[in-house]
Amino acid sequence: MTKKLLIIALFTAFFTQISYGQWSLGDIAFTGYQGDNGGNPDGSQDEFTFVLLRDVTAGEQISFTENGWLAAGGFRTGENTCTLEFTMPLTCGTQVSITAVPFAAIEDGNGMSAGTLTGSGLSLATSGDQIFAYDPANTPSSTDESGFIAAIQMNGGWDADASSSTTSAQPAVFASNPGTSVAISPEVDNAVYNCTDLEDDDVAVLRATIHDPANWNTNNTTPFDQPACGEMSCTTLSTDVFDFTGSDFSIYPNPSNGKFTIRNRGIAIQEITITDINGRTLEVIEMSGSRSSQDLSLNLKTGIYFVTLTSDDASTTKKLIIK
């Protein structure tokens, strides 16, 4: 009997260790998208960003599709879908950016890869599009919409039906649960959440604020740098903590061949750190409180890198693309 109980205990412990959380409606919110491929500050294409509204563990998966939702239920076919498997635990408030070119998912708090992508990068149309997030273990269907997590409609209001690659009906689960999806109207090519401050500690307030289209910045010709407000907290925005943000410096040209300039808007910088997409530190440059712009020449292979500027009590990170 003792041996049987031990085997049962070990069996239970094993499956407890590999079990993952189950996605629910509202567990993420989209915070940005890019329809125009020319003029992105970091050179990437077809980028979209979302914020986690709960903690995730390594091994969890989430899918994204640009296929529209039919009025009769179910996804229209013919467009792209990708699935992200997280390779590290991430906390509520972390923003993740996914790009089609390069095909990558970046955790924007530390500038590291958020996980492994499979499928195809989304191809967001300039004439309007939509993105749905759903649980790949529970793909929504005409008879069951419980797998939906979030949605963004970039084609103005929701359409009567998914009659083309740029249109989509609104799934009933979003219509009956306000504050879990957002529709940007009128149609616009590029938009980001504008980082409206919150005074309430309830994550539901953050979710509702992000899903209010009045709290978004839009541009019909030039993409925004995503995410607009860096890492968030599920209680307050990180801009309430840091003394400076990513807008205080810029990198150009980007993409570059390894020679680039970091333009500093007068912030006393103690250190510049260069890391690769796997989080490995490649170079640390001591700045000793310099407030000047810096010209750098680095021998880097083609790929994505991250430049982190650190002051006495804050840091911020930008993507750098080497051609």
TrEMBL record:
One of its GO terms (molecular function) is exonuclease activity. It comes from the Bacteria. InterPro entries: Secre_tail. It holds the Pfam family Por_Secre_tail. Residues 251-322 form the Secretion system C-terminal sorting domain. Keywords: Endonuclease, Exonuclease, Hydrolase, Nuclease, Signal. This is Endonuclease/exonuclease/phosphatase.
